[in-house]
Amino acid sequence: MTTPMPAPRPTPPYSAPPGAWLRSPAALGRATVVLLGLVIATDLFACYADWLEMDVTGDLADGVTGTDVIDRADRADALYGIAGIAQGVALVATAVVYLCWLWRIRVNAEVFDASGHRMKRGWTIGAWFCPVVNLWFPRRIVADSWDASAPWGSRSGHAPVNAWWTLWLLSLLGDQYAERSYRQAEAAAELREATTTMLFSDCLDIVAAVLAIVVVVLLTRMQERKVRSGELPAPPLG
Description:
By secondary structure, the chain is mostly helical. The chain contains six helices and no strands. The chain has helices spanning 26-61, 67-112, 123-126, 137-149, 159-184, 188-229. Helix 1 (26-61) packs antiparallel against helix 6 (188-229) and helix 2 (67-112) packs across helix 4. It starts with 25 loop residues before the first helix and ends in a 9-residue tail after the last helix. 31% of the residues are buried.
């Protein structure tokens, strides 16, 4: 009696490019999520500082005087400045770890599907720092990695990626407009209007950070699941 040969395991249709090999993104993904949580915490603190600034500048615009309102204005200005510094530190720390995670994701995605990327690998980092193209290149890189990391033979939509990127851009535009308005403000009413815009921008940033966490978690899980499936090209030798 002849023992039947086992059916060959299906493999992905594309081979890995030179210099690309699989490494788990799980640890970097967890670190990115933690730091995005820190961004959310600093944004919440900034919203509180914005609200205090709005409250006191509203009183000043209404003609309220006295040492009490002056003391409140000093405290609000101090918190406003501290919140800005905290946001900047959290953003820089998160950006460094996020880019490390995204690089790992992109290299893995090239192993899964070397032909499904519209941008060269170097743009994974460079796209964030080049004016104008940084408005859409990073989103394209994440979307291509998302497609390559989806289960074999399927193509999931980009709803989480699109939602995150849209909110991120809106928060950036709102932040730039609010900062410019704040620097140019001369009257208390103008300061209050600028701070109101900043509060709106900080709220948008919170939502964008939450959506960024969703994208990081889902994309990391897709890659981990695909690695565990065993349906991968052979790693390069040497």
